[in-house]
Amino acid sequence: MTTLLIAEHKSSTLSSATLCALTAAQAIGNDVHVLVAGNNVESVADAAASLSGVTKVMCANADVYEYALAEPMGDLIVYLSASYSHIIAPSNSESKDFMPRVAALLDVGQVSDICAVLSADQFKRPIYAGNAIATVTALAAKKVITVRASSFDKNAQQNDQKCPVETVDFVAESVLSSWQSDDITESERPDLSSASRIVSGGRGVGSGENFALVEALADKLGAAVGASRAAVDAGFVSNDLQVGQTGKIVAPDLYMAFGISGAIQHLAGMKDSKVIVAVNKDEDAPIFQVADYGLVGDLFAVLPEMTSKL
Amino acid sequence: MKILVGVKRVIDYNVKVRVKADQSNVDLTNVKMAMNPFCEIAVEEAVRLKEAGVASEVIVMSVGTAQSQEQLRNALALGADRAVLVESEGEVEPLNVAKAFAAVVEKEQPVLVVLGKQSIDSDNNQMGQMLAALTKRPQGTFASKLVVEDGKALVTREIDGGLRTVALTLPAIVTTDLRLNEPRYAKLPDIMKAKRKPLDTLSLADLGVAPKAHYRLDKVEAPSIRSAGIKVASVDELICKLKDEAKVI
Ligand SMILES: Cc1cc2nc3c(=O)[nH]c(=O)nc-3n(C[C@H](O)[C@H](O)[C@H](O)COP(=O)(O)OP(=O)(O)OC[C@H]3O[C@@H](n4cnc5c(N)ncnc54)[C@H](O)[C@@H]3O)c2cc1C
Ligand SMILES: Nc1ncnc2c1ncn2[C@@H]1O[C@H](COP(=O)(O)O)[C@@H](O)[C@H]1O
């Protein structure tokens, strides 16, 4: 039995979520092959070849994979699927798009967002915004799985000797869908999904301009900036900063929430953080129930004071 | 142009579920149920396309228990024209739901299928993508903007780094993200009118779908609860705690 791990990569670098998914793949207990698909991804494939536990890397390098569109990615993975018992990917906006397609094309179900591997076919996954944890057994011969990266440690061990990298010559077609444009948020700050510290703001921050206060503290701490849905909906910050059930799931060493009430949908995305700090002027805000350190106060006073004292 | 919309009956998003004592599942007895919020957004988008003259008919469909009629009637009150209930007991896996939708797509030939991106109960995020694969239609998932013109759907998707726009050749499948629109509330006269709108009830067998079990639910547990923390009185105390006690800064 062999597992195919679909690598996630950004600007020619393997993402840390891929390393977390590798840990999950190894817990399943099979040989692990890695698929690196994209355009100009030879260097990513090369990096994947030195990961410990990986016995083969497949590199699908073609224009059509550049934006990881679901249709060509699905076809590519299905093309490669015959010799694999498990097909696994870190959960992200790309894999969420193409993995269920793969599952349907193989006529099997998908187990989404696993947070623990109990055996080769039994997994745990959060349901109901993380208010319950289900143990499920995947019954189909082929298992299509996405992995909640924040629940697994990174496997960053390197092998001295690289495993072979094979070129995949299958080039999928994409006739029915095409990429038009990207509006990517550029930021010098650490990536929200993998940051070890996050400073988040909610509706209480009040405006996009006021978010500068959140950003100033984040920069002082070398932290990523996050937000609640309310802050994103109100246009204070861009959508990619949303933390929660339907946004990003994070588990940093330090998560600081300013002006966030603590709705279950928000908690779903951050309650596995090591240390949670909440600052809210309402002492009954539910966020305090999960906070290690709560400060009842006005964020407009606390944020600048904290930034200046650090 | 017809639009088919998925409507799933789920726990109300404000309710915090409890796990049953025997760990067989969550306890849904006497729990408030509602339309999945992402489906509300899907219904709203379809109704707006009809109001804009782009669509001619909006069909809503649910796979679930007889009680799902409530959510379908609600969708009819919001402006959908007719409803299809595929009655079935217990939780139906997304692939089986997708097969039921594929059968209805085959019969009704909607130019657009609009679904939510995710059920807030099972948190699967699968069905639309599966339906797209089964019907060989292109997919635009996690849409925060949808423009239908010249035989194409331009879908702006919420992705990890920001936004991405893709063009889909119609017919296509779209799944909704939170910021696609703000759903309206049903007005009383429309709720009355909705009672007279057609609602067909079918079974999976009627659609030629033999549901397959691809996984088994073994156990449902409550998540580990964080032990209650402390309140600090000042920024100085907070910094002190973070440095000396938690050692995170
Ligand atoms: C289907 C669905 C999915 C959702 N997904 C997500 C998700 O992924 N992520 C998410 O975050 N939400 C999500 N939500 C929304 C969620 O239910 C809440 O509405 C949202 O999290 C509230 O954001 P908030 O805490 O910023 O705003 P509010 O609940 O309005 O809270 C603002 C807080 O700021 C405090 N405050 C105000 N002024 C100050 C001040 N000067 N100083 C200090 N404190 C102040 C207030 O006391 C209050 O507690 C989802 C909802 C639905 C229905
Ligand atoms: N049983 C169902 N009945 C109707 N629509 C459904 C059903 N299950 C899923 N859907 C649709 O598919 C979307 C994604 O669901 P899921 O893959 O379960 O997260 C939902 O938001 C619905 O629009």
TrEMBL record, chain A:
Its cofactor is FAD. GO terms for biological process: fatty acid beta-oxidation using acyl-CoA dehydrogenase. Transmembrane segments: none annotated. Pfam families: ETF, ETF_alpha. Binds 1 FAD per dimer. SUPFAM superfamilies: Adenine nucleotide alpha hydrolases-like (SSF52402), DHS-like NAD/FAD-binding domain (SSF52467). This is Electron transfer flavoprotein subunit alpha. It comes from Marinomonas foliarum. The lineage of its organism: Bacteria, Pseudomonadati, Pseudomonadota, Gammaproteobacteria, Oceanospirillales.
UniProtKB/TrEMBL annotation, chain B:
Coiled coil: none annotated. Signal peptide: none annotated. The keyword Electron transport applies. Its cofactor is AMP. GO terms for biological process: carboxylic acid catabolic process. InterPro entries: ETF_a/b_N, ETF_b, ETF_beta_N, Rossmann-like_a/b/a_fold. Keywords: Electron transport, Transport. Residues 23-211 form the Electron transfer flavoprotein alpha/beta-subunit N-terminal domain. One of its GO terms (molecular function) is electron transfer activity. Gene3D superfamilies: HUPs. The keyword Transport applies. Heterodimer of an alpha and a beta subunit. The electron transfer flavoprotein serves as a specific electron acceptor for other dehydrogenases. It transfers the electrons to the main respiratory chain via ETF-ubiquinone oxidoreductase (ETF dehydrogenase). Belongs to the ETF beta-subunit/FixA family. This is Electron transfer flavoprotein subunit beta. It comes from Marinomonas foliarum.
